[in-house]
Amino acid sequence: MIYTRPHQERKVSDQLQDRQIRTYLPVKKEQRKWSDRVKTIIAPIFPSYLFVYLSNSQEFYEGMRADGACYYVRSGTSPARMSDDEIHSIRMMESNGVNMEVTNDPVQPGQQLLIRNGPLNGLSCEVIQYKGKKRILVRVDILKRTLLADLPSSVFM
């Protein structure tokens, strides 16, 4: 995982892909309001973070040469790694366009469920009460962030 300068995630991702290094930049559509209009934009789910699949040390060093890359996120002395399950959960939520919110507020553990139907079929999640609504959450421990989504209770049946 690479930490980038603000608003440089896409630029770094494009540079790394040009160098044959696989990347993943989770994005979401959101409404932004200016004084004269409202526009739908595509924004990163995790600002300034880019997930990188490194297969050798050469790719590690190439990643740092990208213009806009600051450093690799570390866990101790080695680069931080996300589990395939966490990446899969983020991809499922992103690809199905559910209403998502990212928070770094501490969230209490809730009931563990498996979504059985609908676009997120097979996703393991927790159900919590957050801001007065029942929501599902997927934890991203390395970033100390939580993805929250609104889903009807019928998807758990």
Secondary-structure map:
Layout: E1 2-4, H1 9-18, E2 22-24, E3 27-33, E4 38-44, E5 49-53, H2 57-64, E6 69-72, E7 74-75, E8 78-79, H3 84-95, E9 100-103, E10 111-114, E11 124-130, E12 133-140, E13 145-149
The CATH C-level class name of the largest domain = Alpha Beta
Which range best describes the helical content: under 10%, 10-25%, 25-40%, 40-55%, 55-70% or over 70%? Answer: 10-25%
Query: Which architecture of the largest domain would the CATH scheme give at its second level?
Result: 2-Layer Sandwich
What's the end-to-end separation, in Å? 36 Å
List the helices and strands in order: EHEEEEHEEEHEEEEE
Shape: globular
List low-confidence stretches. none
Assembly state: single chain
Number of distinct beta strands: 13
Could you characterize the architecture of this molecule?
With 157 residues, the chain is an alpha+beta fold. The protein folds into two domains: 2-79, Alpha-Beta Plaits, CATH 3.30.70.940; 84-156, no CATH class. The protein is built from three helices and 13 strands; from the N terminus they run βαββββαβββαβββββ. A five-stranded antiparallel sheet has the order 9-13-12-11-10, covered by helices on one side. A hairpin with a 4-residue loop joins β12 (133-140) and β13 (145-149). The model has no long low-confidence stretch (mean pLDDT 81).
